[in-house]
Amino acid sequence: MPIGALVLAGGASRRLGEDKTVALIDGVPLLDRVLGALGDDVEVIVVGPPRRTARPVRFVLEQPPGGGPVAALAAGLAELATDRCFLLAADLPFLTAEALAQLARAGGPHMDGAVAVDSSGREQPLLSYWVTGALRAALPPVPAGARLREMLSRLSYVTVRLAGDRPPEYDCDTPEALERARTWA
């Protein structure tokens, strides 16, 4: 079954103070690290300004620009042609193909999706797997400014603690988090 991926890469990176998608870890930009975890057969849509990437992707922009994750999700879903998809942040340096496979297996046929949780049990909606039609149906009429967690709360999903040497759900939102990721890498 064809799978897609929506990678949200349009945030302002305010807490980090630089465009996190191009921040390097072991010489590889964060966005390319996320894209590298996806199989070559995955249809990838990056929601954010076009950037140079190591693999072919399609870029789209949310409306209005800076409209938030739900607006970005709506823009990506409008372009996606697969029945199932991953919803990913662009700043997950330790994301692996194995972690994505674990999410896809957990999603199962009777659920709308699967959402990763961190070591404290907090849900990480930007590391998740969904039935594309369920996501489309849950979109609010005005996506700009809508809350992603609120939107996803209308769907049936399981939570999954992902396995890995380094936490696949780890994100780089601050200079300290980025430096820690560089040390771990």
Task: Kindly describe this structure.
The protein is an alpha/beta fold. It contains six helices and nine strands; from the N terminus they run βββαββαβαββααβα. It has helices at residues 30-36, 69-79, 97-107, 132-138, 148-152, 175-184; strands at 3-8, 24-25, 28-29, 43-47, 58-60, 84-89, 113-117, 123-131, 157-161. A seven-stranded mixed β-sheet has the order 5-4-1-6-8-7-9, sandwiched between helices. Strands 2-3 form a two-stranded antiparallel sheet. A hairpin with a 5-residue loop joins β7 (113-117) and β8. The longest helix is centred in the middle third of the chain and has 11 residues, at 69-79. The protein starts with a strand and ends with a helix. The mean pLDDT is 92.
Query: What is the subunit arrangement here?
Result: single chain
Low-confidence stretches: none
Helix vs. strand class: alpha/beta
Question: What is the 3D form?
Answer: globular
How do the strands line up in the largest sheet?
5-4-1-6-8-7-9
Order of helices and strands: EEEHEEHEHEEHHEH
Main sheet?
7 strands, mixed
Our Rg estimate from Cα atoms comes to: 15 Å
Instruction: Work out the helicity level.
Output: 25-40%
> Distance between the terminal alpha carbons, to the nearest Å?
33 Å
Instruction: Report mean pLDDT, rounded to a whole number.
Output: 92
Total helical elements: 6
Q: Report the count of strand segments.
A: 9
Instruction: Note the beta-strand portion.
Output: 15-25%
